[in-house]
Design brief:
The protein has 297 residues and is of the alpha+beta class. Helices cover 52% and strands 16% of the residues. It has 2 domains: 168 residues, no CATH class; 117 residues, Roll (Nuclear Transport Factor 2, Chain: A), CATH 3.10.450. Strands 1-4-5-6-7-2-3 form a 7-stranded mixed β-sheet. Helix 1 packs antiparallel against helix 2, helix 2 crosses helix 3 and helix 6 packs antiparallel against helix 7. The protein is globular, with a radius of gyration of 20 Å.
Length: 297
């Protein structure tokens, strides 16, 4: 085996971990792949023999690449859910069958990174996001992160601390029991199908936020409060009629399907047995990438 083939094999061993880092940094599966590929290109041009800790080296390279990508985005920081054209832009969901994740998905979502958490991460400044993701999610030491950011370890620690407070305040940890979460989702769907407004309000947190991303051609929506979200859910009850159980970023959710085509993906964040966030993707372009066979197995 040539040195290049050996290096490629070593890189592939780290690819799942690198995708997990990039997905948390970018919230986009496609951009995450681009960042990982860029890391391979940099490794192939570097003196790999001089790298003592390949995994750590690659992690920081991917982090730096993602940082550059975040800084180049034209998203307005005061309204991070909207893209440069004013459309709502949700992170890419990771969709799997209701019975569990495949091994690659388990690595990608190892710390239960739900869509609601990714939405909060999108509100962070790029440097804050890097410090939080690398340190809190992947235990990268602050001195290594500081080298990527060009700041002192103390300043980097402050960035991570500030990001941590914002994340904990805006995205409280979801309930841990999958069966209990699934029962809440089922109750939501039953109420939506039956047009039962009061039953819907009962499973929604009073401060719930519902977000929908329809892509280029369909308007997105943001609704706040249980009453507004319940009314919207009844309006779009046709999605509930065609719902298949699924895991969305490892948590119970639903995928609406009609005539072999995905109509929507619904991600539920559940805290204290109530839905605190509802994220709905109806963008046809991104929905077309979902593998329906995994949902029906």
């Amino acid at each position: 085996m040539s040195e290049e083939e050996m290096l490629a094999r070593r890189f592939e061993e780290h690819r799942p971990h690198l995708r997990a880092v990039a997905y948390r940094m970018l919230g986009s599966l496609g951009e995450a792949e681009d960042a990982v590929q860029e890391a391979w290109l940099k490794l192939s041009r570097a003196d790999a023999g001089a790298v003592e800790n390949l995994g750590g080296w690659l992690t920081t390279v991917v982090g730096r690449t993602c940082l550059d990508m975040l800084r180049s985005r034209t998203t307005r920081r005061e309204d991070p859910l909207h893209d440069q054209d004013g459309r709502i832009r949700l992170p890419d969901p990771v969709v799997s069958g209701p019975d569990g994740l495949d091994p690659e998905q388990e690595i990608l979502l190892a710390d239960a990174v739900g869509l609601a958490l990714l939405v909060v991460l999108d509100t962070l400044a790029p440097a804050e996001r890097l410090a939080f993701v690398l340190h809190d999610m992947f235990a990268v030491p602050f001195d290594e992160i500081a080298a990527v950011l060009g700041r002192t370890p103390a300043a980097t620690r402050q960035l991570a601390s500030r990001a941590r407070r914002r994340v904990q305040g805006a995205a409280p940890a979801p309930d841990s029991d999958p069966a209990a979460r699934r029962s809440v989702v089922d109750a939501f769907l039953a109420a939506a199908r039956g047009g039962d407004f009061d039953a819907l309000v009962a499973v929604l947190d009073p401060g719930i936020v519902a977000r929908s991303d329809g892509g280029v051609l369909r308007p997105g929506l943001i609704r706040h409060g249980a009453a507004a979200v319940a009314a919207q859910a009844i309006t779009f009850a046709r999605f509930a009629e065609a719902a298949l159980p699924a895991l969305v970023n490892g948590s119970p959710g639903v995928v609406a399907v009609a005539e072999g085509r995905v109509l929507s993906v619904m991600a539920f964040t559940i805290h204290n047995a109530r839905v605190t966030a509802l994220d709905i993707l109806t963008d046809p372009e991104r929905l077309a990438r979902i593998d329906l066979s995994a949902l029906r197995s």
